Amino acid sequence: MEYLLVELADSKDVKEVKTVLEKSGKLNKNEKIRRENNGVFKIYTRICEKTEWEGIMMEEIGRIIDHQLGTYRERTVEAAGIVGCFERYIDGELKRRGTVVEEDIVRQLRLSLPKKYSVYPPMLLLSGQTLELEVWKDHTRFFPQLLEQEFPQCTHIAVNKPIIESDVMRRPFNLVPVYGNFGPEPTDTLFTNPSKANFKEAFWCSVVQNGITQHWAPRYTMFSRGNIKEKKRVLQLSKQKQNLNTLPVAVDMYSGIGYFTLSYLANGYTVFCWELNPWSIEGLIRGLTANHHSYLVIGADEVLDSKKYHAAISSGVRAFVFNESNEESMRRFEQLSVPMDLQHINLGLLPSSKDSWGSCTRMVNEISNSKETQIHVHENVSINDFDTFTNETLEFFQKDCFAKFLHLEKVKTFAPDVWHVVLDYLVSPRKGDS
Ligand SMILES: C[S@@+](CC[C@H](N)C(=O)[O-])C[C@H]1O[C@@H](n2cnc3c(N)ncnc32)[C@H](O)[C@@H]1O
């Protein structure tokens, strides 16, 4: 809809015109009266016809004050945000191409505009069937406009499809780049054996959650915003420490890019963590650096003995990052042979972290000198099986340790009636109990 735009050169007239328009219900209050750079004031009316405007002037103040008239197109409520940006784009395309963009195409484009998105600077990550669709191939000029107008902190757009359940490294095979340079196309070699140059060329994102900066390469590592509630809980839980005379220790068996690891470190823990994916290790290193933690990465063929460990601790290292399977964790602790005040063990793998439960009870019995350790078990569980799973896990820990169930945290739904849950257990050693 087009309305009249009244331009006044004399500031003294502004109040009078505003009052008249307000009184007759013809002032567009959604638009501020602004003074332009050339000194002219612009007043947005709800009047369509010049004659109506002049009639109101004569009736209310008995004269036509000195003014210029223009028109403007009203911004509708939908014209805000992504939809508004799209409508402006289509308007612009009509003028630029000098032809009508087919109604049916416009309808398809409109229908596939993103409805759900997350901003992970410099990437805008969309979900659902959206800008990756064929119909957009002829409308990629929209993408930079969308970023410039609505997401100025972003330079890249991608669409996120669910990650593949069976991939133990939880890699984002289904990330579809839409706009921007996402670095080299992933290959098997790039996934499993990346070089320093590959890390450098790749596209990296970062986000700050609960004051903790995380870095990841969206084509090679997973990142889940949905876990934010659990991240916050871990940060809170690990604030309480039992024994302030020794260095509290946390073990993160599936560190990924390190969110839980970074939370424990933020609360003053020394962390031992394991991770298979070299890209996650690189993300973790970037996260450790960004959050100012000293760390030591230990490759599969390197040894961490007590001498090296104490030297590292003396130099301020608090994160020991093992780039290997956590099946090695007990062998590593035996080799290290240093008693630990083990307060937390985090098992953050879905759909199940069962494979590492046995290592946990061994750690509690054989390397921890703490009276009790909290174990946080992640699992996808059907809502009908919460009790059964809680008890099964408890029985497992009770085989070799004293164990008590503390809490079941529902993190998010994974499928209808299936929840990503975290179960907390308080586990104490049975050594010397025979
Ligand atoms: C759900 S992600 C971890 C999320 C993590 N909390 C974060 O902040 O990124 C699980 C991670 O465990 C790793 N992983 C899976 N099996 C493993 C194993 N046996 N040993 C070590 N890491 C493993 C995967 O490569 C993946 O990065």
UniProtKB/TrEMBL annotation:
Belongs to the class I-like SAM-binding methyltransferase superfamily. TRM5/TYW2 family. InterPro entries: MeTrfase_TRM5/TYW2 (IPR030382), SAM-dependent_MTases_sf (IPR029063), TRM5-TYW2-like_MTfase (IPR056743), tRNA_wybutosine_synth_prot_2 (IPR026274). Signal peptide: none annotated. The keyword Oxidoreductase does not apply. Pathway: tRNA modification; wybutosine-tRNA(Phe) biosynthesis. It comes from the Eukaryota. S-adenosyl-L-methionine-dependent transferase that acts as a component of the wybutosine biosynthesis pathway. Wybutosine is a hyper modified guanosine with a tricyclic base found at the 3'-position adjacent to the anticodon of eukaryotic phenylalanine tRNA. The gene is TRM12. It holds the Pfam family TRM5-TYW2_MTfase. It catalyses: 4-demethylwyosine(37) in tRNA(Phe) + S-adenosyl-L-methionine = 4-demethyl-7-[(3S)-3-amino-3-carboxypropyl]wyosine(37) in tRNA(Phe) + S-methyl-5'-thioadenosine + H(+). It is found in: Cytoplasm. This is tRNA wybutosine-synthesizing protein 2. Residues 147-429 form the SAM-dependent methyltransferase TRM5/TYW2-type domain. Keywords: Cytoplasm, S-adenosyl-L-methionine, Transferase, tRNA processing. PANTHER family: TRNA METHYLTRANSFERASE (PTHR23245), TRNA WYBUTOSINE-SYNTHESIZING PROTEIN 2 HOMOLOG (PTHR23245:SF25).
